[in-house]
Structures are given as structure tokens and as C-alpha cells.
């Protein structure tokens, strides 16, 4: 079994999950993400989180803080409502 590297003290769920992310992608990408998740015993959503956190760690980046997030404007939904 292989694991995605997370720096010490970095948990996957540091706050309550309230955001919804809906993406359009190719079937190939979707199948690949599902297969990766199955290998790691993760859901597709959790696998995507792990990949993003791994990217941040490998590039010496830190995840945005709650303070930084609060200054980012909401993105409109496809219906134009936040």
C-alpha cells in the first residue's frame, strides 16, 4: 500500500467540509481518479484533496489560512448566484 506524503501535523480535514466542487472532466480522468482512490482506500473527493495537498507539500507551499480565504470573493454558480 502506498500513501501520499503529508507533512507532520497536516491533517486532511482541518475544518468542517461545507464547500461543494463540481467539475467537468473526461471519462478517462474520472476513471483514473477512481482507480487511484481505490488503491489508496480513499473516495474520489478525498483522493483529489490528497493530490492537492501533496502538490502543495512538494512545492514548499502552505495551504491558505482561514484569514486568507475570507478575503477571496465567492465565485458565482452556473446560475449566477453564490
Describe the protein.
The chain has 82 residues and is mainly alpha-helical. It has helices at residues 27-40, 44-58, 66-70. α1 (27-40) crosses α2. The relative contact order is 0.16. The mean pLDDT is 81.
Summarize the structure.
By secondary structure, the chain is mostly helical. The protein contains three helices and no strands.
List the helices and strands and how they pair.
Elements lengths: L26 H14 L3 H15 L7 H5 L12
Helix pairs in contact: 1-2
List keywords for this structure.
globular, 3 helices, 82 residues, mainly alpha
Shape descriptor: globular
What helical percentage do the residues reach? 40-55%
Strand content: under 5%
- Listing every helix as H and every strand as E from the N terminus to the C terminus, the arrangement reads HHH
Number of helices: 3
Radius of gyration: 15 Å
Pairing-aware structural class of the strands and helices?
Answer: mainly alpha
Largest sheet entry: none
Mean pLDDT level: 81
Note the quaternary state here: single chain
Low-confidence region ranges: none
Strand tally is 0
User: For the terminal residues, how far apart are their CA atoms?
Assistant: 40 Å
Amino acid at each position: 500500500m502506498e500513501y501520499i506524503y503529508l507533512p507532520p501535523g497536516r491533517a486532511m480535514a482541518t475544518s468542517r467540509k461545507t464547500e461543494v466542487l463540481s467539475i467537468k472532466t473526461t471519462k478517462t480522468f474520472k476513471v483514473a481518479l477512481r482507480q487511484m482512490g481505490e488503491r489508496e482506500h480513499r473516495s474520489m473527493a478525498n483522493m483529489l484533496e490528497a493530490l492537492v495537498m501533496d502538490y502543495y507539500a512538494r512545492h514548499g507551499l502552505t495551504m491558505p489560512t482561514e484569514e486568507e480565504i475570507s478575503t477571496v470573493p465567492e465565485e458565482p454558480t452556473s446560475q449566477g448566484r453564490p
